[in-house]
Amino acid sequence: MSETESTVIDDFLVLGNAVPDELSDGRKTVCVAGYSKKQGLIRIYPVPPRAPMKRWNILEVPIERNNADTRSESWKIQFSKADWDKLHQKIRLNGKVSDKDERIAIIENLLEGENGYGCVEEINEKKRSIGLIQPSIIRCYFEDRKKYDDSIQTTLGSDSLFKTIRSYKNQPRIIYRCASCKVKNPHDQQVLEWGIYEWMRQNPAKLDDVWENLHITDDAWAKPFLVGNQARYRNSFIIISILRYKIPVV
C-alpha cells in the first residue's frame, strides 16, 4: 500500500463502534466500522472517543492508509497522530439514516452470501476482514478477563467518564452458527459493541439483562452481526456490532 494513498469520503455510514481501547502511547481510541458506496465496508482506526461517530450517521471524513495495518478495509483519519487533539473537527456530519425501512434495506443488502445466508468462513476465505452475517444464536455468556485495570478514564476535552476494554472484568461472548455455516464447530466470539459495555458500566449488577435488551432470544427480531478479524490474528473474528431490528410484519 502506498504511504501517500489518501482520499476524502463523504458518504461514510457508521454501523458500529467498538469499546474504547488504549494505544501504546496512552491515547484512548475507538475502532469505527461502516459502509461507503465508494469504498465498501471499511474500518477507521484510531478514532478519538469524542468524535461524532454515532451509528447511522453519514459523515465526510478525510482518510488515508494505515501503514501499521495492511488489511485492505483499514483506514485512519488523515494526520491522525499529529492532529489527535483536534481530529474530531475534521469529521463533517452530512446526514443520518433515520427511516427504519431504509436501515433494514441497507443491512440486508450488505449481508454475506446468497440471499444473506453467508458464513464468517466465507469472509475469511476471500481474505476480507469485515462483513455482515445472519447468525443462529446458541448461547450468550460472560467470560472473566484474566487481566484488567478497574479504573475509569476521563474523555479528552470532556468531564464525562468512560472505561476502556481493559477496565472491564467481564467479557461478553456469543456462541452461534451462521445461517449457512461452513465450519464444524459453532463460532464462539467476543462482542466489542461499545453500547453493550456502556450497559455493563452503568448496570454492573444486571449484566445478563444486556442480552434481553438486545432481543437476542426474541424470534421477532433479526440480529445481524457486523464481524471483523483482528490485525494480528487474521483468522480470528470478533463481533463489532449487533445490528438488530424488529422483523417487519408482512
Tell me about this structure.
By secondary structure, the protein is mainly beta. It folds into 2 domains: 6-96, OB fold (Dihydrolipoamide Acetyltransferase, E2P) (Beta Barrel), CATH 2.40.50; 100-246. Helices cover 12% and strands 38% of the residues. The chain has 4 helices and 17 strands. The strands form 5 sheets. Strands 1-3-4-6-5 form a 5-stranded mixed barrel. The protein has a 3-stranded antiparallel sheet with strand order 8-15-16. A hairpin with an 8-residue loop joins strand 5 and strand 6 (74-77).
Instruction: Domain count, please report it.
Output: 2
Helical content band = 10-25%
Q: Note the total helix count.
A: 4
| Main sheet specs | 5 strands, mixed, barrel
Which geometry do the CA atoms define?
globular
Termini gap: 47 Å
Spell the H/E element sequence.
EEEEEEEHHEEEEEEHHEEEE
Number of strands: 17
What do the pLDDT scores average to?
A: 90
Q: How large a portion of the residues is in β-strands, by DSSP E?
A: 35-45%
Radius of gyration computed on alpha carbons: 18 Å
* Alpha-beta content class: mainly beta
Low-confidence stretches: 156-160
Strand order of the largest sheet: 1-3-4-6-5
Oligomeric assembly:
single chain
Tell me briefly what this model is.
The protein is mainly beta.
Please outline the helices and strands.
Layout: E1 6-17, E2 21-22, E3 28-36, E4 40-47, E5 57-65, E6 74-77, E7 92-96, H1 100-110, H2 120-125, E8 130-133, E9 135-144, E10 153-154, E11 161-162, E12 170-178, E13 187-190, H3 194-202, H4 209-213, E14 221-222, E15 225-229, E16 237-242, E17 245-246
Parallel strand pairs: 4-6
Antiparallel strand pairs: 1-3, 1-5, 2-3, 3-4, 5-6, 5-7, 8-15, 9-12, 10-11, 12-13, 14-17, 15-16
